[in-house]
Every structure is written in C-alpha cells, then in structure tokens.
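Quick question, first post here. What does this chain look like in 3D?
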Amino acid sequence: MFTVCALYHFTRFDNPPALREPLLELCLKEQITGTLLLAHEGINGTIAGSRNGINAVIAHIKSLPGCDNFEWKESTASEKPFPRMKVKLKKEIVTLGQPNVDPTAHVGNYVDPQDWNELIQSPDVVTIDTRNDYEVGIGTFKGAIDPETETFRDFPKWWEENKDRFHNKRVAMFCTGGIRCEKSTNYLLSQGVEDVYHLKGGILKYLEEVPQEESTWEGECFVFDGRVSVGHGLKEGPHHLCHACRRPILPADLERPEFESGVSCHQCVDETSERDKERFRERQKQMVLARKRGEQHIVGLD
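> Answer (accepted):
Ran it through. Tokens below.
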C-alpha cells in the first residue's frame, strides 16, 4: 500500500532553483514518486511512497522558508500511482495568469467541510466549481455552476463574462485540494466581490471527513495520479485514463468502438489527425514492449 500526499503552500521563495536539487535528491533516496512544482510563490504537488519516505519529505518541506506550518492531505493507493519523481521549476505553482493575484495577502473565508453543506444550500449563495471541464464531468457538488473552462487560466475571462449573473450573491468556490481557490478567491476580492468563501482542504478533505449519507457531492473526484478518481472515504474510483487525451473514462468506455488503448477514446477520437494516431500507436507499442521487458517506458509525461 502506498501513501499518497497532496500538498501546496504559498510562501516567498527567493531562489527556487537552489531548493530543487536537495528536494529531488531526498525524494529519489526515499523512493518517492510524483511531481512537485517550485516557484517564487511557493510549492505544489502530489507524491507517493512509503510511510517513512513521505514523513522524510514532509520534514524537509517544513524546513523550507515559510513552510513550517504548511498543511497536506493523505490517502492511499493499492498500486504505485506515479512512474517516477519530478521536481519542476515554474512561474506559478498553479497557473491563473494574473500577475497581481497574491494569495499570501488576502483570500476568501475558509469553510470547514462540516459547514460546507449549510453554506452552499443558502438561497443567497452561488457555488462555483473552479476545476477544468473534464474534472467536473465525473463529479461535482449538487447545484454547483460549471464554468466549462479547459484550463484554470480561462477562469478570469469566464468571470468577467458572467459576473453580472451573481450580483448581490455570496460566492462559494471549491477545487480538488484547495490551491486553485486560494488564487480564485483573491482574484474575486480584487474584482470587488465582498463575500467570498472556499472549501478548506478542497473536495478531498470533504470526501474524507463528511459521511456519505450527509454528503451533497455527486459522482467521483478526479485526481492527478494513477488512481484517476476517488470517492467518499477517498476510496479509489472506477475510472481509467485515456492516455491520448488524459481525460477520465469508465470501464464501459473501453468497449466503445472509438477506444483504442493509448490512441483515442470517445472524447478525443475526432480531435486528432490520423498522423497523430499513428504516432500514438507507435508510442503505445513501445510502452507494451517495455512492460514485457519489465521496464517503464515513459513518454510525454512532462
């Protein structure tokens, strides 16, 4: 059983490149896999490994500037959820593309999972899912608005085009683990929205703490690792991943005529050319051959 640790923390790193190598070396030493992002604004990522290995990485991150009180969320996976370890340097640890947004200055009101249902069921509250369209497609809170954004960077444009719909409303927002809401709530406050709320710990914390019989969550929660989705109690969900488009698919979708492993699914079959598909077929062939040799053939994961 693997321990999966999802984490983020906004703080000021003056020299992110200097933090990268020691962090990567420790993760490799402890046989940790996953991805961690470093930027001037902080750290973000999901990693997996043994209990002792995760403890060692957490202790190291706590020693970084301004990270002594960072929080993280844990779950488990029955199989190794990541093929390798990457520590990347980025401009933003979650990309909104708004240079004036600063979650360390001011964010919305945190709402504990136990209080979330009461808030979003209030008639003067509008609930907005800040995740991408394919994530919303497999699960969301009952009655939540789906902005139908392909990336988080699209959210400010969507808000500008739709903000009049929410005049005199309190705005509650949520995302997978909480990081996108740190930025989206700061953005809305900068746009003059006074009453802004977000789910503390994100969907993952809600699914962990709120009993299913009391839950207003419908469906599964997409996660960016080999499990693909989780449900109440953070139990692994039924979804697979289309390795062509990286969208979640159900077991029944594997039987559809549009599905070809590593090449296409019903969601992306019309989005790529035949030349693209031939390239995907070759990639899939090399992956199968690598597995037969007991190796990992990793392509296009960066």
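The two ends are 26 Å apart (CA to CA).
The CA atoms of residues 96 and 153 lie 4 Å apart.
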